[in-house]
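Quick one:
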Amino acid sequence: MNSELNFNSRFIQEFTPDSMAGATESTIVYHYTSPEAFLSIVQGKSVRFSDLRYMNDKSESFFFVKRLLEFCDENKEKYQHFIDVVNELLKENDYNKIKRLEIQDIRYKDFLGLRMEKQRNFIFCTSNDSDSLNMWNYYASNGKYTGYNIGFSVPKFLKTFDVDHDGTVDSFIIYYGNVLYKKKLQFEAIEELAKAVESFITKKPDKQSVQRAAISVRSYIELRGPFFKDESFRSENEFRFLFSIAEKRIPHNEDEAKKYFGQYNQRLKEGFCVKNGLVVPFMQVAIPEYSISRITMAPMTEYEIAKSSIKELLNVKGLRGTNDTEIPIFKSKIPIRF
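Output:
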């Protein structure tokens, strides 16, 4: 783990399965966005964490469960206790529909005395690539590339979720890290979970142990599952931030944020926007001071005039770089013919 990634809060956690050696090596990650969204981010000094249920990839909420069932099919003899736990947790679902990603929701079995509160997950997507044609393609309009990417310092960005001293408890959990795309690595990560469950139940093979293990598996699905994506998305080289909170604790305004959260997180609140014709919820998250490392303009942008206006905007909004210096502005080096 990068030495800068140390926080007072124990609820800021890195997604680092053994299959991802040196998981978070990048200290800067890049959020690609449209000119309109870029302006909104800078003016509001905040970013939007999207509700996982409304992501562009419709399989976001279910893909990990599909992989989990595939792993169970291929390891029926090796991890029988683990498979029993998975079946107990998911038995109210049609497994074939899950494997075909033809479902709208996952139903989990509730256990008497062990019921989990309903959680909501919000995602902020970035890339490890500072200048990716694949990512710029999302912001091409009428044959022109007009987007921006904002380079965020991972340690400084995560400080927005930290607490003032060790032991303070906030009403949410943050996970961050690289997305896993390769099926082999995904199976290796699931196998870590399977081994832990197998060991736990072997020591005390009773009904209560099975139920407790099922709760742990559900927690893994909800908190780490979003870091598993189909290999067809691998060119995005994504680095994710996941904000997970009990539904009843979602702050709808800053007064509620003050009620639920510590002093560093009182600007967190739910908002709504229109996306693909739908009104969708998001979590508004303040950008910490000095967390922006750099800004890059898409290919075909008129660099000098755009750079001048961005510098003026940053100056007016009082935004400074990671070392309290002027934020550097670059143009994409990808050669695209006009």
